[in-house]
Amino acid sequence: MHAGTHDGIPVLTFTSPWQPETVALQRPSARYLAMIGAGLREAHGWDADRVVEYLRGRPGIAEHWDEADLHCALLGGAGL
Hints:
This protein is an alpha+beta fold and 80 residues long.
């Protein structure tokens, strides 16, 4: 869905017809986690340890990522 524009850039989102609790969560990619981590550092001023602490408790991450691999992903280990 096109939610509008911000500074001339389209803002997009997506929806689904199913309930979130009915879907098996998949392992997010290292690249995706690095992007989320960069946003948390920029928005909140968190260091890598704080980002890892936060992400480790999130559904879909907690079940698929350990602390060491999360640290590696946040440092750009896209090959994980």
